[in-house]
Every structure is written in structure tokens, then in C-alpha cells.
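User: quick one, fold this
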Amino acid sequence: MHLPSPQSLTPQRLLRASVVVAGLTILLKTAAWYITGSVGLLSDAMESFVNLASALFGLAMVSIALRPADEDHPYGHHKAEYFSSGFEGALIIGAAISILWAAGHRALHPQPLHQLGWGLGLSAVSSALNGALAWLMLRSARVHRSIALEADGQHLLTDVWTSIGVVAGLGAVALTGWLWLDPLIAAGVALNILWQGAQMVWRSSQGLMDEALEPQLLADIEKTLNRFRQPHIRIDHVATRRGGQRRFVELHVHLPGQWTLARAAALRAGVEAALLQAVPGLRASIQLLPSDVEPQPDGDAVDGAAGPG
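Assistant:
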């Protein structure tokens, strides 16, 4: 079977698909809860409502992130995706608290379960849909460098493992008749997605605070700059940051004072081209200075350095 390429699966297309799949899984999991009366399956269904809200909000933020730079946002709108990840994490935390409350109520007031076979079958179908979509999302998130797509894919993957745990636990209930396993499973689901939500909120906050590039990319930048370093050419004050799908690097290049402007500009163009080849999509800001001149510190903390000059 021919699979679509990650390049063709844009964040917008996949998030629209996530909205459709979330709607289907809500129907399937709600039906599974209704016919069985299982609070474990209810917790699974509640997480699908979070999937739907997250996909809708993520689609809105990805659309905003694609807007070009304007007078009010000269550096573009790319950080909008971080709001999607943070919003999704907050929704997951809220869902986890609700599930814990439902699990506690059921533990105090146990109820018999009905037609577990049908309920588990519906849950398995919804998990297969979520698993296929999560795989496509995570595959494409690496290509498009989309944190919104990655967050939604990771959430769907968590949902799959949650559903597997619910199915396995309810299978044990059917075999043993131990009704207390049902609220215990729901509590386990809640704690699992609570941890996932906290991680999403943390990652979003780090992105909004201009987190440095990944260690491997920092190493690639440093390796590229070393090709241009010579006794009379010094490169220092290297700082990097991430902004949504974009990556940035700032650096100083110290040159002999007697160099002509044309020669210095040619070197800067060469450094920019080499950095872009090493890290596709990287935006470099290079300040040229005479060798005997040091810029005055501005008091800002360095947010990510590729290495000393």
C-alpha cells in the first residue's frame, strides 16, 4: 500500500484529520461506556473530548503561525504553535482531575459491568484509528518541525496506550469479577495523562522563553563555524533560539581592520550559506567587527551557545 509522504501531510491536513478521528472515537468510546457502565471506559471517552478540543485549537494556532510577518509582528507568528501545546496540556490536566473524581466515586459505589465484549471491541477500533493517526502525525512533525503536530501526535499515542491498559484491565474484571479493578484502572489512566499534560505545558513554556537549539544542531553549527575560524578571524558570542518552526543563530565575526567592506561581506555571505546548508531553514544574524573591538554587553543572558570563540 502506498503511504503519503511526510511532506504532503501538512500540519493543517493532519489536524483536520485529527478533528474527524476525534469525533469518531468520541462516538465509539461513549457507546462503549454506555453499554458497559465502566468508569474506565468513561475515562477513555472523556480523553477523546480533549482530543477534539486540542485538534481544533491546534488547527487554529497552526493557521496563525503561517501568517507572514507584519508591522505588529516583524518576526512572524511562529510561536503561536506553543500556545496550542500549552492549551492541550492544560486540557489534559483538567480531564485527569475529572477522571480521578469519577474513579473515586465509583470506588465508593461499585456497580456491575455489562456487555464487556462489545465495549472492549468498540474501544479497540477507536484505538486503531488513533494509533494510525498518531504515527502519521509524529512522522510528519519531524519534517515540518511543528510542535503543535508533535503535541497532538504524542497525546493520541498516550490515548492508545491508555486504551490498551483499559481493555486489559477490564478483561481482568471479566475473568475475576473484581469490580474494584474498574476504578483502579480509571485512576491509573488519570495519573498517566496528568503526567503527559504536565510535560506538554512545560515544553510549551520553554519554547515561549526562546529555548536553545537541540544539542545535535548546536554541534553542527559549531563544526561549520570552525571551518571559518583562523588566527586572524575570530567567531564568538554564538547564541541560538527556537521560535515555532524557525531556528535562529546570532554571532560576532571579528576581522582585521584593514579588510575592505566587499571582502568582509563575502565572508559573511559564505558563513551564512554554510550554516544554512548545515541546518536547513536556519536564520543567521552575523555582526562584523574589527579584531580589536569588543561590543558592550547588553546584560541579556545567552540563551544557547554553540561553543566558545
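User: anything notable?
Assistant: Helices lie at 11-36, 39-65, 80-108, 116-144, 147-176, 181-208, 215-226, 261-278.
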